[in-house]
Design a protein that fits this description.
Bound molecules: tryptophanyl-5'AMP
CATH topology of the largest domain: Rossmann fold
Radius of gyration: 20 Å
Number of strands: 5
Largest sheet: 3 strands, parallel
CATH architecture of the largest domain: 3-Layer(aba) Sandwich
Structural class: mainly alpha
Strand content: 5-15%
Order of helices and strands: EHEHHEHHHHEHEHHHHH
Distance between the termini: 33 Å
Shape: globular
Length: 328
Amino acid sequence: MTRVLSCIQPTGDVHLGNYLGALRNWVIGQHECDAFHGIVDLHSLTVTTEPGVVGENTLKLAAMLFAVGLDPDVATVFVQSHVPEHPQLGWIMECTVSFGELSRMTQFKDKSAKREAEFISAGLFTYPALQAADIVLYDTDEVPVGEDQRQHIEITRDIAERFNARFGETFVVPRPVIPRAGARVMDLQDPTSKMSKSSTTESGLVYLLDDPAAVLKKFKRAVTDSENEVRFDRAAKPGVSNLLEILSAVTGETPEHLASRYSQYGPLKTDTGEAVVELLRPIQTRYHELLGDREELTRLLRKGSERARTVAAATYQRACDAIGLIRA
Ligand code: TYM
């Protein structure tokens, strides 16, 4: 059976880009594949400076993952810091990737540029090595992610291949699985930038927990352009194309087909906003129910982490044996 793994950071609230680019496919994939999904709290330490925040966000994110439809009896949902093999193998991965390769990661360049006046941790730079460990620890075949993570999966492949060439066949080399629609949801106020938790404008970001009025308002105010022709053209019409792509991801119709139905921007904005409101309604109801029982959430995460650890520990040992480290 195909092994699938993907992870999400507990930094800030989950947004529409996370959902359409990744989470939705995790939910579909859990019934077809052997699915592992991690809440990568150690990754979020690259930008965390306050106590108490990461743990709270981890619980909320767990509630959201179950609310969107991950079934704890079907998928293995775990917390990265509960599985110590992640940072252990992360170090080995750091020693298998070069400074030059890490320097070429566009996400590091973007994030460090945005934080130019703030503390830029070394972890922000070495982050892809820990991500590679997250993936190869589970003998992962497929990694369902949004387009922004493609480069990180490519570097994971390079690291796994290099390790295998140096120390013998040890790791499965994973491939990215990127959805046709929703792979790159853009900021509604700046449609040339991806919708992101580190965005500067709140109004360009649609959170899964936004109430209907807020969602409709954000879509109504979405930046388009000074023409009035509805056409799907990412380069020339990024704002309109983003709306069409979101509507396409929600309805399953192609953006080109949807475009032919509209002659004005107003109705496109309204329909997209309303489609998103209906998409989010049941998710929000389940989220609030689940977050009401924190003990149960903690129990589910513990169960997932135990299952994850069994797999991760065996792979980690295999890697240590391949290198020839003396067993403890
Ligand atoms: P993160 O937490 O930023 O995002 C989680 C998932 O959401 C997708 N995504 C988007 N998709 C479409 N449009 C957008 N605007 C958008 N924004 C985010 C991301 O592609 C991702 O799939 N480094 C990863 C977390 C990670 C990971 C892993 C992923 C750590 N280890 C191992 C896969 C496998 C990250 O920061 O994702």
